[in-house]
Amino acid sequence: GPAHLFRLAGKCFSFVESTYKYEFCPFHNVTQHEQTFRWNAYSGILGIWHEWEIDNNTFVGMWMREGDSCETKSRQTKVHLVCGRSNKLAYVSEPSTCVYSLTFETPLVCHPHSLLVYPTLTEALQKKWDEAEQLLYDQLITDQGYKKILKEIFEEAGLLKATEEKEVEKQNKKISLKFETVEKCNK
């Protein structure tokens, strides 16, 4: 992601709403602590740093996933990055059960180019993106094909997690490369 945002790593930001205290630690996790004296007050993890959300070739948010279990799934949180005068957790909501939404204000994202994806990529990945742009311009690929290439670029850059299918595919390829023949396998 954007190198200038790594200044936030190792820091945590709190927000208290009614009886809950939320704590956001960029590139680490999001936690929630119930501020009551009940014997079973909830205190837990709403998500662990997972990947970026990218829209229109811009970083729009951070996904914190694999939090504490909640019914049949894990808690997860999307952190929206917005321009603000200081670094602070400004708003927390739960739009759907066990899925949280946080708004984090920071001056680090105020510049119009501060969240562009392209400059954060290696030269080789920028070249791949340029080639995809040319293919789209020449109408040799569809919008869908272009988006697929971009997704692959973002995964290769480590900005998005590869889907489980791809991980299984990679494992299968590794396994199948171990033996070229049945004889070698038997040995």
UniProtKB/TrEMBL annotation:
One of its GO terms (molecular function) is transferase activity. GO terms for cellular component: extracellular region; Golgi apparatus. Residues 10-112 form the MRH domain. InterPro entries: DMAP1-bd, Gtb1-like, Man6P_isomerase_rcpt-bd_dom_sf, MRH_dom, OS9-like_dom. It comes from the Eukaryota. It holds the Pfam family PRKCSH. Its main location: Golgi. PANTHER family: N-ACETYLGLUCOSAMINE-1-PHOSPHOTRANSFERASE SUBUNIT GAMMA (PTHR12630:SF6), N-LINKED OLIGOSACCHARIDE PROCESSING (PTHR12630). This is N-acetylglucosamine-1-phosphotransferase subunit gamma. It comes from Chauna torquata. The gene is Gnptg.
